[in-house]
Amino acid sequence: MRRSVTKFFANPLPFGRLNHVAIAVPKSKSITEAAATYQKLFDAKVSEPKDLPEHGVTTVFVELPNTKLELLHPLGAASPIQGFLDKNPAGGMHHICIEVENIETAIQKCKAANIRTIGDKPKIGAHNKPVIFLHPKDCGGVLLEMEQV
């Protein structure tokens, strides 16, 4: 029996533009070293490292003409990206971030479509805007972040 996808298209999820692609940087490499690599590779503007203790990461943004790369580095022993890095010691793509106009509405629509969020409430993200993650098991194996714009 095939699953019906009608519920996904009859009431589409309120996703907007791609905001960024996040890349986990292993502990064996400094985030500033990784940022310098991307800056040279793309001749891109690179932000200063920013610690986000609530998220357990240090971030650096690499601005590209059509999107951004977010470099993530573990911050503290309980960093949520440490599990990813344990499975992927060289680092790699961690998640993608999609913009939404109203994060509460987006959460409600996702839950109505049986797409689980990681956590019950949005947190303030690297851009000082509300964010929440969607479970990769409900999103084709991809960890999705929604950011209110």
Question: Could you provide a short overview of the structure?
Answer:
The chain is built from 4 helices and 9 strands. It is an alpha+beta fold. Residues 1-9 have low confidence and may be disordered.
SSE inventory with pairings:
Elements: H1 6-10, E1 18-24, H2 31-42, E2 45-46, E3 50-52, E4 57-63, E5 68-74, H3 82-87, E6 92-100, H4 103-112, E7 117-124, E8 130-134, E9 144-148
Parallel strand pairs: 1-5, 6-9
Antiparallel strand pairs: 1-6, 2-4, 3-4, 4-5, 7-8, 8-9
> Which residues form runs of ≥5 with pLDDT under 50?
1-9
Order of helices and strands: HEHEEEEHEHEEE
Q: Overall pLDDT, averaged?
A: 91
Please indicate the percent range of residues in DSSP E strands (runs of 2 or more).
35-45%
Distance between the termini: 39 Å
**Fraction in helix:** 10-25%
Quickly give the structural class.
alpha+beta
What does this structure look like?
It is a single chain. With 149 residues, the protein is of the alpha+beta class. The protein has four helices and nine strands, in the order αβαββββαβαβββ. The chain has helices at 6-10, 31-42, 82-87, 103-112, and strands spanning 18-24, 45-46, 50-52, 57-63, 68-74, 92-100, 117-124, 130-134, 144-148. Strands 1, 2, 3, 4, 5, 6, 7, 8 and 9 form a nine-stranded mixed beta sheet that branches. The longest helix is centred in the first third of the chain and has 12 residues, at 31-42. The model is unreliable at 1-9 (pLDDT under 50).
